[in-house]
Specification:
two-stranded antiparallel sheet, HotDog_dom_sf, ApeP-like_dehydratase, 3-hydroxyacyl-ACP dehydratase, alpha+beta
Length: 141
């Protein structure tokens, strides 16, 4: 069950066709979970599967959704974030179009405006992809 899915673009800076989450499932401390229904016409789908750039963008947007969700709860503007580094990216399988994946990010550290996040994409109980992201948040003036 989504805690938010009506207009996910209120929580993330991306716009169609690059929106890679369908809704937020959970924001609980350092943990964020989202879902993505992979449309067959998704810009990152080739040969019926979601390609690695789509998996990477999905993990990054899950991290961004947490920041946006918290900002909205505080009635603050949603800040922009940027991927500064990707470490230990592993792609195990490519999930099929027409299905729904679930992505979890967990904050492992924060220093100034840099946040370290572990991301994991799951489909039918199996890990599809995982990595560590370093994300920089652009502080709002």
């Amino acid at each position: 069950m989504f805690i938010h899915s009506d207009d996910i673009t209120a929580y993330i800076p991306q716009r169609t066709p690059i929106v890679m989450i369908s809704g937020i499932l959970e924001v609980n401390g350092p943990i964020t979970r989202t879902a993505l229904h992979i449309a067959p016409d998704n810009v990152f789908v080739e040969n019926g599967v979601l390609m690695p750039p789509g998996l990477m963008e999905n993990m990054a947007q899950t991290a961004a959704a947490r920041v946006g969700y918290i900002a909205k709860q505080e009635n603050s503007p949603v800040p922009l974030g940027f991927i500064g580094a990707v470490k230990d990216l592993e792609i195990f399988e490519l999930p099929p179009a027409g299905q729904t994946i679930e992505t979890t990010t967990e904050i492992t550290g924060e220093v100034f405006n840099a946040t370290m996040v572990n991301g994991k994409v799951m489909y039918e109980g199996k890990v599809m992809a995982q990595c560590e992201l370093k994300i920089f948040i652009n502080p709002l003036k």
